[in-house]
Amino acid sequence: MSKRYDHREIELRRQGLWERGNAFATVAEGGAETCYVLEMFPYPSGRIHMGHVRNYSIGDVVARYQRMRGRSVLHPMGWDSFGLPAENAAIQHGIHPARWTDENIARMRAQLKRLGLSYDWSREVATSSPEYYRWNQWIFLKFLERGLAYRKRSSVNWCPRCSTVLANEQVEDGLCWRCESAVQARELDQWFFRITDYADELLDYTYRLRGWPERVLTMQRNWIGRSAGAEVDFPVEGSQEKIRVFTTRPDTLYGVTFMSLAAEHRLIEKIAPADRLGALREFASRVRARAAAAPRDAEPPKEGVFTGAYCINPLNGERVPVYAANFVVAGYGTGAVMAVPAHDQRDFEFARAYGLPVKVVINPPGEELDPAAMERAYTEPGVMTASGDFDGMGSEEAGEAITERLEELGCGRRTVTYRLRDWGVSRQRYWGCPIPVVYCEDCGVVPVPYEDLPVVLPEDVDFSGQGLSPLESSPSFVNAPCPRCGRPARRETDTMDTFVDSSWYFLRYLSPRGENAPFDRDEARRWMPVDQYIGGIEHAVMHLLYARFFTKALRDMGLVDVDEPFERLLTQGMVCKEITRCAEHGYLAPEEVRDGRCAHCGAPVEIGAVEKMSKSKKNTVDPDHIIERYGADTTRLFSLFAAPPEKDLDWSEEGVEGAYRFIGRVWRLVTEELDTLASTPPYDPAVDPPLEGEAAGLRRSTHATIKKVTADIERRFHFNTAIAAVMEHVNLLYQFRAKAGGELERKVMREGVEAALLLLSPFAPHFTEELWEMLGNRTPLHETPWPDYSEEALAVESVEVVVQINGKVRSRVTVPAGSDEETVRERVMADERVRRWTEGREVKKFVYVPGRLANVVVAGR
To answer: Can you give the pTM of this predicted structure?
Structure first.
């Protein structure tokens, strides 16, 4: 083996040895503790990016560390391979989605292997393979049997560009989360999963997930949105219709002065006079358009249109005008809000804008509000007023009493509502899992028999990009016999939301070739829940919530024994980079900048803020280029050292070069002393004599570093500080090697070098494995146990105490560790330099900080 550090040759050879030896195959030995480490699997877009590198490097450190700790580790990888981009590629480039996907998987698999990630590739799955999505369909049928899957006509979010339905979570400020087109409302027959059946449990368990980031749990709690209050029916004047509202403030019911309906509320067409419908429809269209054009997180001005209808307050009989308003969302609550301007700021602003009454029904204690003089709504608790029998009561007490009155009158009831809605899983796409039902004129909706699964995607499909599902263009797929009566029937042509695929994939890894069930129950008992899950926080209220729902539903079917899928969750930060801009040509890639000037026009470039890497901003870095130039170990080491995993990482070429130099430094430390190190065994306190001086200090550093790195990985995942500790230890090894002339010193040096390689191996496995073998070790490094630290080695026999005279450092003395103050004082006062500064002067005070500092206070001359 060459002593020159050639990262290309070393890494490719090591990867070949690992692959041929099945080095990372999962072995569930009888007595070994299990550990399931999982990173969120990628969509096969064709190329990995630095975010992938960081995510998967983090997971690999955990997996390699746990193996070295003696645990049986499951660390799989697969592909979230259904999805719209493959279909768009078919439309744009005439390539079949299956071929596009398979080619991308091949490229990305090779890239991940080039990083040296310790995956058990024998468990690889792709959600677009019939062997996988057969079990999607099996689970769908089980949900259907239990009432967790159902079909209804529904107003859905429709993206005209993607020609598909979007879940609520996939609509951001009225825009499609993928293409940012304006989302429209459309009525379609849709399939839903009844996730709301688990709303309370999903919410309650967010308080039990101790290993999850509080930020993610808060996002899920807010998304579930549990609110206790009352539902109230307001009869519409001159109609049989009623407007139902939900309110958490029944104490404000006497202060209702108008009613707000969502611009697209179904009742508007029924209650508005004919001469008002044109204006209302135009308003609804304008609201949709403005929502699409508005900046993200922008708060639009409050707007509304009077419907011409009135409803009646059921408590006081007052006539209340009904408005269509742009701030009420049709899909949230009932789509109607009783407006109490005096006690709700949004209603207050609307009332002031449209000259509507403001009626105070709650006063601050000891005060009386003047509606005409109010500048803001009063939203705190207070004393009831202008509320009939409830005047003088505290508002919180009155809320309970008013709810009881509503129930007595039959116009309201206590209730709990949720922001969470049932999960619409129908998608008008080809490249997704077919929904296993047929429609028969005689039998209705008929599930496909289990023995006929999978329902396989056909290949004779027209990818026009227009209309509904491309599956409708395939007669061989659409036309099928009814499983019950045998007469001609029609298959469902919608496919499932791809979040269905990722809601249980972690279970398929347990037995990926199983043909009798989606996963083996005994394997689920052995491995579940996932011990450590790693992925982006952008999945907090979609994938992570859906996976929790699936796990609970499968538990209730008796298929798993756990309540939650993931024990611990780490959400890694983003990889960011400075943006380079030209005033005329916009974002510039590195090759478009020459000597600080735009290569197109010669103008000086501007260096902008550090932002998330994005192709649109031309600030991406190609991992293949970095790996080719510096090596996988350097790429991994930089991504783990530059920032704690949960924080954003600022990309830095200097940082990459620094990681490369450090690896070269470790390489030289070993190879330049290889003959000596390879022929010397490590220090063994059981047979070797006790150490003194610098040799004892180096061994103390070795074991202190082991302790530090172990704690940083085990408890905190502070990989950056773990790597920094090894760097400091390597510096000490360099200082010591010139003094390692004796056999004892060489043994301590060997122990320190081996510890450095062991501790670095989860972060940079290739070159450490190479050096480990060069040292003559026969057991591969990845199979070598993680080192234990010795408390005895950490014990300090003596300490250096800094001595100050009147606050200024004048000397240093060495004293036995644990010395009392009197012993230290004797040693300090006997020191020759101290005596020069204290001779002939009165010692007024002696202050000792144990093991660190002594301060002698003397009188002035």
So the answer is: 0.85
